[in-house]
Amino acid sequence: MALIDRHYVRKLPATWWLRKPTYLVFMLRELTSVFVVAYAVFLMVMIGRADEAGSFAGLFDALDSPLGLVVHLIVLAVLLFHTITWINLTPKVVVLFRDDEQVDPRLVAGANYVGWVVASVVVAWLVLR
Amino acid sequence: MDVPVHDVLIVGGGGAGLRAAIAIAEENPEITVAVISKVYPMRSHTVAAEGGAAAVIKGNDSLDDHAYDTISGSDWLADQDAVEVLVSEAPGEMIQMEHWGCPWSREPEGEVAVRPFGGMQTERTWYAADKTGFHMLHTLFQTSLKFDSIVRYDEWFVTGLVVEDGRPQGVTAIELKSGEVHAIGAKAVILCTGGAGRVYPFTTNSAIKTGDGMALAYRAGVPLKDMEFVQYHPTGLPGTGILITEAARGEGGILVNRDGYRYLQDYDLGEPLDLDDPLHPQKRTMELGPRDRLSQAFIHERAQGRTIDGPHGDYVNLDLTHLGERTITRKIPMVRELAVRYVGVDPVTEPIPVRTVVHYMMGGIDTDVEARTLLPGLFAAGECACVSVNGANRLGSNSLTELLVYGRRAARSAAQFVGEAPDVSLATLRTEQEAARQRISDWLSTGSSGDDTVAGLRSILNDTLEEGAGIFRDESSLQRACDGIRDLKQRFEKVRLTDTSATFNYELTAALELENMLDVGEAIAHSALARTESRGSHQRTDHPERDDERFLNHSLAYQTDREPRIDYRDVVITRWPPGKRTYGTD
Amino acid sequence: MAPTDTDPGTRPVVLDVFRFLPDAETEPRFQRYEIPYQDDHVVLDALNHVKNEVDATLSFRWACRMGVCGSCGMMVNGEPRLTCEVFVSEYYPEPIRIEPLAHFPVARDLVINMEDFMEKLPTVTPWLVPADPKPVEEGEFLQSPAQLAAYKRFSMCINCMLCYSACPVYGLDDTFMGPAALALAQRYNMDSRDGAKAERANVVTSHEGIWECTYVGDCTRVCPKEVDPAGAIQMAKLSYATDWVKSMLLPGANR
Fold this sequence. Notes:
The complex is a heterotrimer of chains A (129), B (586) and C (255).
Chain A: E1 2-4, E2 7-9, H1 21-53, H2 57-63, H3 66-93, E3 97-98, E4 101-102, H4 105-128
Helix pairs in contact in A: 1-3, 3-4
Chain B: E1 5-11, H1 15-27, E2 33-37, E3 53-54, H2 63-73, H3 80-99, E4 114-115, E5 125-126, H4 132-144, E6 150-154, E7 156-164, E8 167-175, E9 181-191, H5 212-219, E10 224-225, E11 230-236, H6 247-250, E12 254-256, H7 291-303, E13 308-310, E14 313-319, H8 324-331, H9 333-343, E15 352-361, E16 364-366, E17 378-380, E18 385-386, H10 399-420, H11 426-446, E19 452-453, H12 454-468, E20 472-473, H13 475-492, E21 495-496, H14 506-530, E22 539-540, H15 548-551, E23 553-558, E24 565-570
Parallel strand pairs in B: 1-2, 1-9, 2-6, 9-17, 16-18, 19-21, 20-22
Antiparallel strand pairs in B: 3-5, 4-5, 7-8, 8-9, 10-16, 10-23, 11-15, 12-14, 13-14, 14-15, 23-24
Helix pairs in contact in B: 1-4, 1-10, 2-3, 3-10, 5-14, 8-9, 12-13, 12-14, 13-14
Chain C: E1 13-19, E2 29-35, H1 43-54, E3 73-76, E4 79-82, E5 96-99, E6 106-108, E7 111-112, H2 115-120, H3 145-152, H4 162-166, H5 168-172, H6 179-189, H7 197-204, H8 218-222, H9 229-249
Parallel strand pairs in C: 1-5
Antiparallel strand pairs in C: 1-2, 3-4, 3-5, 6-7
Helix pairs in contact in C: 6-9
């Protein structure tokens, strides 16, 4: 807070992101991106190791513990949060028109959800077959 | 700060002012131009115009038809040379707006679309949905940013016109953020300050429309022309006075009284067609009659107890339900937005309550077709001016056109004038600056002891004009208004000012605005008292007939030390001799 | 008959209004006003009641009171709102806290200084530069309803500054061009008649431009005219990034 050139200037505090739910959601989405990257790196490292060993069995054994389960549940929640909030924003970037009428943004988001589910099913099928 | 000097100074940054500024920057780049406005340009009231702007563009239309509609709409009080200029330069101006990016609504093939409007025999109103004024103003404002040469004084309040040697030398003005009083020199001044609807209590006009430019000119000895002609719009929202555009009727909306009856058929406005008749809405008929006649019909209906009693006075219903949601949301989305928000009515399913509301000043600063006033070097354009293209009643969608055509003409005339004008007198400007500064500082230091508040006096002025010079007036009501305003002017001398701060002192500017409104109100009341006939929007119950013998002329109100002096000047007739004004039968 | 606290509508409207007089004070304060309740009053009406009947020294901007001039934006209970569009009944009988728009220097009371925006706006070339200029005599440029619809909502900005007040990026670093200015740039970029997208890139894709936006999205949430500046900025990012990729893959190709 300061007086500059006869104006009262209000500075944002470091806790600005606690001021509004929308700011908080934004910060969480930003934070979860760290998890997304970290888990992607972790997964690639593990897959790389599994490849050396010749099978995924060792990898699954290593993760088959209460701690592994808890960590994965947390990671799953975080990834879901990130993915859902991210997909919900896609209609802002992808704006489609049918003649001069805008295509319902929910359809754009919906298409993303469908794509996400399909990709997940394919990956699950590849892993679990 | 020393006195800055420009060749041309434009007072007001609305449609007319910005059009003029761009014209100078583009067509006479060697001339320096500045725009001074009490608000940021995009706050100007042009922004609130909704329905559209008229210009002949389609093959089924003609300039003569546009001229005839305008002249008959004006009840033959418009100057026909000015109307011919308006209609012939309108299409070029509108296309120019298109080239500057204005998002006009379009036909399927990409041409500009037009819609029907009141009093017009052909659809010729260009529109950008129902935010036409908004889009025009922002297009003009954004286009004006192209020109580094346009200097702007945003949020500066002009307190006086500096006149010396029979021509303007510039203005004195308060910079609102500092409270400092400055003088700005200019060889030519163009007034583009808009109307004065705020002199009435119930108006579509924004708070800033206080007749500032009219008062500046009036005090400088320039006459105010045809001030008795005040347009009441037939469809404002009760309570707030927010405008529901005529485009709602252009798209097919109907007006019904408490019995659901389309009462306009009783007022010589033609016969109603069925709503599913492909010819509905019929041009120059019923709901597409002119505003003066529709507003007068409302008063008659009210007198006969056929309006509806509401918490904010009597109203009638504007029914759009038969148009369907698609038409309403595509063509007149703002109507829906405003009705839902401010009266809680969705026009898709329910009729909108509406009543008459002060909307536009046909009168204003007397100018010729070159936008020149009687004071060489002083020009005016837009609603603050009276050329006159609107006469006794303006047709909807002609005002946006007027501000473009005459804004540009004012710029051209001013540019021509500065080429021959001598330099401004800096000594005079400094003297006037000091006088203005002294007046403000005296006022602020002594004002707190006054008797009346600014808001209190303003409210009395509003009621005085509504009661004395409303839709219907007569000698005694007008005399009361004249007397009332004289009394208010005396009380104003001792108005109370409680805010002594220099920064953004809006009580001070409100007082200065009130001073302007008192001058404008005085001109309205006295001009109306002197015109003993009924014509267009000026309806004298004691003189109900139009009198072409005595009053086919413009009133000119000159300020004097006492009451204003009213002179007259003949109307210019070119090709359309005065005739009977008919709707619904031709 | 004396009003009682239990009768609806008889309790006063309580306004806690941010006051700051730079000529007399170095710190702002809140002043409480109690005024009669009217169910059809918007917050701006309440402020005008104060100005006209209670305290003429309260300063705030307003003009059209119908949501189109963009003058009367303020923080109402911490949210940037057009005070002509927000009804007192939304809060009544709870007190209403009214402050000047966040993130802007306060000039006085509820009046902010928005010169920063006024200086930034011209730098994004917010005007049409015809791709294929022609004289007025040759008539209008054709533009189909679909081409109009593509940019129309980005042209609805009334410069009310609510989006700047919602944007923490701007609040933290006011060198950011901000939502409204960038949305207007995108409005012209998307106009089928325009040909100056590359020209605008200098400013729009600079560090202070679209890439500074972290997509909090609050600008779009608070926009009273559904302009969706956040969407406009993301579209601009995609569009300029696509242009860049194309220029890498096809050097010399016409963008």
